[in-house]
Amino acid sequence: MSFSMLRFISILSFIYLFSSSLAVAQENKYQQQIQPLAANSLVLDIAKNQQTLVAVGDRGHAFVYQDLWKQVNTPTQALLTKVFFITPEKGWAVGHDATILHTTDGGQSWTLQMQSEEIEKPLLDILFFNEHDGVAVGAYGLFFRTQDGGKTWKSEYHQELLFEEDVAYLAELKAEDEALYLSERSMLLPHFNRIIQATDSTLIMVGELGLVATSTDLGQNWLKQDFIYEGSLFNAIIAGDTAFIMGLRGNVFKSDLSLVNWQSVGLPVDSTINAGILLEEGVLRLVGNAGVIIDISVIGESHLIEQRQGENLVAIAEDSKGNLWVAGNKGLIKLEQK
Hints:
- This protein is mainly beta.
- The chain has a domain at 22-152: YVTN repeat-like/Quinoprotein amine dehydrogenase (Methylamine Dehydrogenase, Chain H), CATH 2.130.10.
- Helix content is 12%, strand content 40%.
- The strands form 7 sheets. It has a 5-stranded antiparallel β-sheet with strand order 1-13-12-11-10, with no helix packed on it. A 4-stranded antiparallel β-sheet has the order 2-3-4-5, with no helix packed on it.
- β14 (192-197) and β15 form a beta hairpin.
- The longest helix has 15 residues, at 3-17.
- The N and C termini lie far apart (40 Å).
C-alpha cells in the first residue's frame, strides 16, 4: 500500500475519532460554558488523580469525579483530547488549536497556557517528567517543550522521524523555494498520537503510519523503529515487564521493555483499539471502536468481555472504589462488573 494511501486512511480515522517560541496565552474569549448534559457528550480521556478522576472532551468540557461527575469551567471551547497529572494538584490538558490548559487544584479550575488558531492542528498527548519539564505532541509532528511548568512552550521539529524520501525532498525544496519548503515541512511528519515513559530512562512515542520511536534523552532525540505494521497506532501501555501498543483494525503488539522485540497479539475482533488499563489481577483490559471491551490474560489469551452497541470507546480508568469508567462518543459510563 502506498504512503499516500496509508496517510489518507490514517487521516480519515483520526478525523473520525475525534515562531519557535510561544509566549503565555491570553484568556480565550470563547470560554466554555457549563452544560447540563455535557457528561453524555463526547469525552476523549480520563486520568486518575489519587482519589479522583478527571475527564476532558468536547467544546472544552472538563469533569472531576468524587462519587459523582461534576463539570468544571475551562477557558476554552476547543475539543480537549488528553489530560495528565504530575502531582495531585498540578495537571495539564491539551486539545485542538494547539490548546494547553493547566490546573493547580486537581482539576477544579483551569487556566490557558497556550492556544493558536493559526496552527490549526490538535495536540493529542502531553507528558511531564517533573513539575517543570514536559512535552506536548500532536498532529503532523506537532511537538512542544516546556522547562518552566508551561509558562512558555517552545516548538521542536523532529526531522529524524521523517521518511528518508521526505528528507531528500525537503532538502531539494529548501534550495529552490523557502516559503514552499516551510509549508511542506509542517505537514510531512506523521501524527504523534501518544507519548509515555516506558522506563526510568526511555520514552516511547507511537503514531500514524506505524510510527514507533524511542528516546533516552527526554524526547530531544528519537530513534525510529522499523516496525512490523504500517497502520496508525493510538496508544501505548506498560504492564509490568511488558509493553503494549495498539491501533487500527484490532492491531495490538507486545514487547519486553527493550522495546524492539514486537509480536502481534491476536484479538477476537478487528475493531480499532484506543486505550487500555492494567487490572489488579494482571489482566490488561482494552477498549475500542464498536464498543468492544477485551481482556488479555497474563498468558496472552484474549477474550471479548462486552460489545456496547453504537459506542466508540476511547479511554478507560478506575476510580478509588474499584469501579471502571469508560469514555467515548456517549460520554462517561460506569461499567457493570463482569
